[in-house]
Design brief:
Blueprint: E1 2-7, H1 16-27, E2 32-37, H2 42-47, H3 49-61, E3 64-70, H4 78-89, E4 100-107, H5 112-125, E5 129-137, H6 144-162, E6 197-201, H7 208-218, E7 226-229, H8 259-267, E8 272-278, H9 286-294, E9 308-314, H10 321-333, E10 337-343, H11 349-369, H12 377-391, H13 399-407, H14 418-430, H15 434-440, H16 443-450
Parallel strand pairs: 1-2, 1-3, 3-4, 4-5, 6-7, 6-8, 8-9, 9-10
Helix pairs in contact: 1-6, 4-9, 7-11, 10-12
């Protein structure tokens, strides 16, 4: 069979993900795996229409399509995202329709589910037959068990193609927002009270709803916020995955473009940051993805700690729970607070006006209060993954992260809770005796759980 591999690592052949593809080529020599370096050659593919059409022809001739990529910021790399946008922009969906497809990723299992959800939805939108996804930890292939599991996944994928296995869609087509939004209400302007407000957006002239929402939001303040269109910045390219920044947070791009200076002088000093964009496929634009990917020069350090973040989105966000979770997780893991999310989905312009005004009001109030919502599973789980990885296998090359984690008490492993462990060990032994176990697991355990709280009310 002919398998087309659309590879999404900016590092191309020398990426970890590519080693998984090479392994499959070795394990299944009777099948042809044609690899296209999508992310590494993204600019060439976009500028050279003949190159783009060569890929489409190969997709059309293939029996199966394998999307492979490393995870970058909860999703695919920005360069890969741009290719997915090109499929829509150039009306090339028909080449993918009806093709069996699977997804292969490498990561440390940090929000790999959101990347797989996204690609499954893209496959459904392209009317492909989605077989499934394989989310590998970066080092899995070095273990015999990992090799066996990957081989079995690929064998089953090939068998599904050969047998025309039935597949089910998981994502319904998006219903776009079609009504126009024009600001209708005028509210008394809010005093920022010294708070630095930054609005980041990527609006195009044709995106009038987004532009009007930005105008209405900015008008909520008595002083004009700093407004920056990401499309006006000189950004030479997306993150290259070179991890040059891992030693001291120095990006390989350096001063070759605007990004580092912009991030350090505009984004970091702001107290309230509004991120605004329109839905492109099932995410924001690849320009926004480039912003997130390039901000990785901060590595796994919360560069926006303590800030108020708000999101203004044009498009059907209510239908995109995966994207909403990404926005919420991004905020939490930055140790920032989400002041609100406003979309143009309400048909009433007055409703949108009120929501935008409330977003501005909440941002100021929470910033003055230094308010942060308590962490949820999104950041607690994410922190533990990073903590363990930086302590262990990623301590090198991520030296800057390791220094930050040591200095800021991030290595909060349970083994330091010696009193709790001793107490639990004693009770665990005591519970083996039936008469003590009956006492421990009676009403006493409920009373014991709330006993520490009683001093609050005394």
């Amino acid at each position: 069979m002919k398998i087309t591999v659309l590879h999404g690592s900016p590092k191309g052949d020398i990426s970890v993900t590519m080693q998984y593809i090479r392994f499959l080529q070795q394990q299944f020599p009777e099948h042809t795996f044609t690899v296209w370096q999508i992310a590494q050659q993204s600019r060439l593919i976009e500028q050279d229409e003949a190159r783009f059409k060569d890929i489409l022809r190969n997709v059309a001739e293939a029996d199966g399509i394998l999307w492979s990529f490393p995870l970058y910021y909860y999703l695919v790399p920005a360069q890969y995202k741009r290719f997915i946008e090109l499929i829509r922009e150039r009306q090339a969906e028909e080449y993918f329709q009806g093709k069996y497809t699977a997804v292969l990723t490498t990561s440390i299992h940090f929000f790999d589910h959101t990347a797989h959800n996204y690609m499954h939805a893209i496959a459904d939108d392209l009317a492909m037959k989605y077989y499934g996804g394989y989310s590998a930890a970066m080092q899995d292939l070095l273990q015999t068990a990992g090799q066996q599991r990957l081989t079995l996944f690929a064998r089953n994928f090939l068998a599904a193609i050969a047998s025309a296995q039935a597949t089910a869609k998981a994502y319904l087509p998006l219903i776009p927002v079609t009504h126009a939004y024009t600001p209708a209400l005028s509210q008394p302007p809010l005093d920022p009270q010294g708070r630095k407000i930054l609005i980041l957006h990527d609006a195009l002239p044709s995106q009038t709803n987004l532009t009007n929402m930005l105008t209405a939001y900015a008008a909520s303040y008595s002083q004009k916020p700093d407004i920056i269109n990401l499309r006006d910045l000189s950004i030479k390219g997306g993150c290259l995955g070179c991890i040059r920044c891992a030693y001291d947070n120095t990006c390989v791009y350096g001063n070759k473009d605007d990004f580092i200076t912009f991030f350090n002088t505009k984004v970091k000093p702001a107290d309230i940051i509004i991120m605004a964009g329109a839905i492109h496929d099932r995410y924001l634009s690849s320009r926004w993805k480039t912003f997130f990917d390039r901000s990785f020069f901060n590595n796994h350090v919360p560069a926006l700690k303590g800030k108020q973040l708000g999101f203004i989105v044009s498009g059907p966000l209510a239908q995109l729970t995966n994207l909403r979770q990404i926005l919420e997780a991004y905020t939490e893991l930055q140790e920032a607070n989400i002041a609100g999310i406003v979309t143009d989905e309400p048909e009433s312009a007055a409703s949108i006006d009120k929501l935008l005004y409330q977003l501005a009001k909440t941002g100021i109030e929470h910033s003055l209060q230094n308010y942060l919502q308590p962490p949820s599973f999104l950041s607690v789980g994410g922190h533990k993954i990073f903590r363990d990885a930086i302590w262990g296998e990623l301590r090198f090359p991520f030296i800057a992260d390791h220094q930050y984690y040591k200095q800021n008490g991030r290595y909060d492993f349970p083994h330091r809770q010696y009193a709790s462990r001793l107490f639990a060990a004693i009770l665990s032994v005591a519970a083996k005796l039936p008469f003590i176990r009956r006492q421990l697991y009676s009403e006493q355990i409920k009373e014991h759980m709330i006993k520490p709280f009683q001093r609050i009310f005394q």
